[in-house]
Amino acid sequence: MSDRVVSINRAPVLTLWAAVVAERQGHDHETALTLGKAVAGLNAQSKGRAIGVYGPPEAKERGKPKKVGLGEDFWLDVCGRPVPAKNTEDGVRAVVKDEPIDPAKVDKYLNSKFGDSLPAVREAMEALAQSYEPAELDELAFPLYEKFRPEIDRGKRGWGQKGDLDLDFIVSLAESD
Question: Which are the contacts of 79, defined by CB distance < 8 A and separation ≥ 6?
Fold first, then answer.
């Protein structure tokens, strides 16, 4: 293992990675932050239901067609996931229910989770994202994340657990292409 290792849980790692991927796909920084947060939230919801952290959808949700009624104007694909989004006065933003995600809150979240390591982690992820063409990255983004994400215990025991994020390993994935 390298000297450049960050102990962190998976949610902020996926949030940042999805934001970096969204920027590589051409979205501005603020839009990308909101898309990253939405991808991580959607992933957490799916995973939480699969391992029993969250219950099944409420009855009112079950009969509704998927991808409707989330406050979206349209959908964007990021890391292989459809993300609800809308146009706002400030630009495109991912939404949760009817509320656009605030990029300043996502930035604050990432800074609080990564601390002083954030610039180095972002740099490693950007190197990896830049090693792929945007269209190619869309298909490979989540499998790449699965390669470098922190290892944690399986099932409920791993929920919220920290693991090691190896920045040199992330960079090596870019260099291996």
Answer: 14, 17, 18, 21, 39, 138, 141, 142, 145
Contact of 122 with 33, CB cutoff 8 Å? no
Nearest to 169 by CA among 138, 137, 147, 152: 147
What is the gyration radius of the CA atoms in the chain, in angstroms?
A: 16
Range of the domain at 119: 5-175
Backbone angles phi, psi at 90, to 5 degrees: -95, 0
Name the domain count of the chain: 1
Sequence length of the chain is: 177
Q: Are strands 74-78 and 91-96 parallel, antiparallel or unpaired?
A: unpaired
The pLDDT tens digits of the residues spanning 148-175 come to 999 875 655 555 678 889 999 999 998 7
Helices 118-130, 134-148: crossing angle, 10 deg rounding: 130
Answering whether pTM is above 0.85, one says: no
CA proximity to 4, closest of 125, 173, 169 = 169
Q: Which residues contact 83 (CB under 8 A, 6 or more apart)?
A: 35, 38, 39, 42, 75, 76, 77, 94
